[in-house]
Amino acid sequence: MPYAEQILTVARMRGAEQALIDAGSSVDALMQVAGRGAADWVWRLAAHRKVTVLCGPGNNGGDGYVIAEALRERGGRVTIVAATEPKTDAAGNARALYGGEVQGPDARPHGEVLVDCLFGSGLTRPLSDEHFELLNRLADTHRHRIAVDLPSGVQSDSGMVLNEGLPQYDLTLALGAWKFAHFLMPATARAGALRLVPIGVSAIEGAARVIARPRLRAPAADSHKYRRGLLAVVGGRMPGAALLACMAAQGAGAGYVKLFAQSGLAGAQVPPDLVIDASLLTEVLSDDRNSAVLVGPGLGRDAAARERLAIGLADPVPAIVDADALVLLGARQLAGRTAPTIATPHEGELVALERAFACEGSGTRPERALALASASGMIVVAKGPDTVVAAPDGRLACAPRAVPWLSTAGTGDVLAGVIASRVATGQEAFDAACAGIWLHGEAARLCGPAFTAGQLARKVPEALAACL
Question: Between the CA of residue 7 and those of 65, 123, 205, 308, what are the distances in Å?
Fold first, then answer.
């Protein structure tokens, strides 16, 4: 995994920094690299406008002194406001190297850009009243705001907001590596755009990763529809959701998508190129050409739905379980399965699965997803504004912040179809889940504002083209 994609906990980040120090660097040298790298971004955003840097007592404040000095050397107009005196040697050394004036917490500068270096990723308790008031007072008098490493007042590993009423930022500069708060709600909602400032940290085995644009290939020259993958979609009482999933799957790479409908689709707008099979499910799912099966969208929760779920999971191919099927799912239905199973729950469905598999349901969102993956043996796509993917073997990935226009009915069915299509092509299940999430997010970006799930599904081929 490239270092630029990894997400580190506070403990792992400290270990990574210590490894650099053990290899011959120093805290002061790393602070110079981080601060000057961050200053490059501040310089671009400031564009010669006045900058105020708010420095805290620790090494995040030290980064602020380095940033300010780098801006001053370039001829930038910069003011430092120190919330308190430096309390680490490296922060004290960085302040001593700053060639400009340092103002105290009572200062009331009016600039265009505020750089928040009050506290970084080590914060575990709420800001004091004095620090909270200072941060918000400066934020209110500056049009643009940049957070260095993390917005002050959030917890790095959980994404929790430790103080209500914190400022919104235009840009957050991650130092050295991504942190979970860059991708988890509610912290990520305040972070603005995200950029990574490298400091030389190496890739760490077992670290979580950011879901990035997948590298996909066009079908081989001698491909045919079955070689590209046959996806069986198990329909139920409500055909619209299954049709949405099928439309999305058709554009995500599978060569053949077949909907096994529970009954006729009278009145439904069925694409003419979608194959509908209303035969007995036990017969049609015996087709050994199936590459993957999707069950859940529009399934229902009655006895017939339970039966169709059981039959779908009996097919010895990778299975994607979504929507109603997640509420019906338990350990008994997974017994004997050897092919991968991917579950795609939203928060309510995640809680139901945690009960079904005797998980406590406590901890951070990544911890909950990992616990469920371990207990169930499934790959868990905990979907929402901060989607997390967890595998039973401990792999973990976080999606970039989704566009809020995705919060509309049917987009989860589209996601299930895209992931299922990628699995049907033969892509490894965890990677297919991550690829499907990226394609789903890119399709939403291409849609613009206020789209429907059908419009989202029709943008999937365009998103796929960006990965070839």
Answer: 26, 17, 11, 39
**DSSP line for 433-466:** HHHHHHHHHHHHHHH-SS--HHHHHHTHHHHHHT
User: What phi and psi, each to the nearest 5 degrees, are found at residue 426?
Assistant: 105, 0
Residue 283 domain-assigned (yes or no): yes
Q: Is residue 95 part of a domain?
A: yes
Q: Cα-atom radius of gyration of the chain, to the nearest Å?
A: 25
- 273 and 410 part of one domain: yes
Largest Cα separation within the chain, whole Å, is 80
pLDDT < 70 regions, the chain:
1-3, 264-268, 284
H or E element at residue 55: strand 51-55
Residues 454 and 271 sit within 8 Å (Cβ to Cβ): no
Rounded-to-integer distance, Cα 430 and Cα 239, Å: 28
Give the domain extent around 429: 225-465
Q: What is the pLDDT of residues 104-127, one digit of tens each?
A: 999 999 889 999 999 999 999 999
239, 243, 255, 313 from 260: Cα distances, Å: 10, 11, 16, 14
Q: What is the DSSP letter of 242?
A: H
**Alpha carbons 25 and 416: distance in angstroms, whole number:** 47
Alpha carbon 294 to chain centroid, angstroms = 23
Collapsed DSSP state (helix, strand, coil) of residue 365: helix
CB 252 within 8 A of CB 229: no
Of the candidates 182, 209, 236, which is a domain's last residue? 209
Residue 238: what pLDDT? 87
Per-residue pLDDT tens digits for 157-210? 999 999 999 999 999 999 999 999 999 999 999 999 999 999 999 999 999 999
pTM: 0.95
* 259-263: long-range contacts, CB 8 A cutoff, minimum separation 24: 259/233, 259/235, 260/232, 260/233, 260/234, 260/235, 260/284, 260/285, 261/235, 262/235, 262/236, 262/237, 262/304, 262/308
* CB atoms near residue 331 (< 10 Å): 12
Domain co-membership, 262 together with 204: no
